[in-house]
Amino acid sequence: xxxxxxxxxxxxxxxxxxxxxxxxxxxxxxxxxxxxxxxxxxxxxxxxxxxxxxxxxxxxxxxxxxxxxxxxxxxxxxxxxxxxxxxxxxxxxxxxxxxxxxxxxxxxxxxxxxxxxxxxxxxxxxxxxxxxxxxxxxxxxxxxxxxxxxxxxxxxxxxxxxxxxxxxxxxxxxxxxxxxxxxxxxxxxxxxxxxxxxxxxxxxxxxxxxxxxxxxxxxxxxxxxxxxxxxxxxxxxxxxxxxxxxxxxxxxxxxxxxxxxxxxxxxxx
Length: 269
Description:
The protein is an alpha+beta fold.
């Protein structure tokens, strides 16, 4: 994988993938504002699958599991400007504001297409990636503040995302796992996102499912794969990455071991 990230600051970078394909499973610790220069991305979350292309701008909320699949397009690399909206910066921004909107956590990706104000803000960063001088810290603060202000102007509900600083609260374990088993996370991260310590997560999981998390997750992924191959007529290579497997050979091996036949046999039928 030929991946190059050029940082202006730890919060602002230009990301470029030259390969034909790149997949990652991520739970972002900070909100991410992303502007597409070229390429395509598929983002799979528990509620929906999102497709983004050149010119699109979107906000990925923190603490939300996602499978991200990046593709070059039309001979151009997958290239994005990424701006982290950190908790520290957002606390400073909101500390003197009276937020009138009802505060609630909104976990879905928010898309802004190619909104001219956001595009102008993010495009103005491009020349700085091409010079060797250090990017002034005060200018970085101004650019991030500008982006937050634009988001609040064009999206009245975005305060429900940006001004919410709570850690995940304790949620229904069965419901959460049924929605998020396809995402590769450590058991510690599963515990954190369900509002539990690692020990409490494992104890509650055993009580709820009467098995270990890893065994249950693998079984659920394979059962979902079988459904998508047999009923939705999808291709093994597409199913493999979206349900949490790292490569096609491992998926095929696990599938055959569990069901007794290869995933390609369902495609042939």
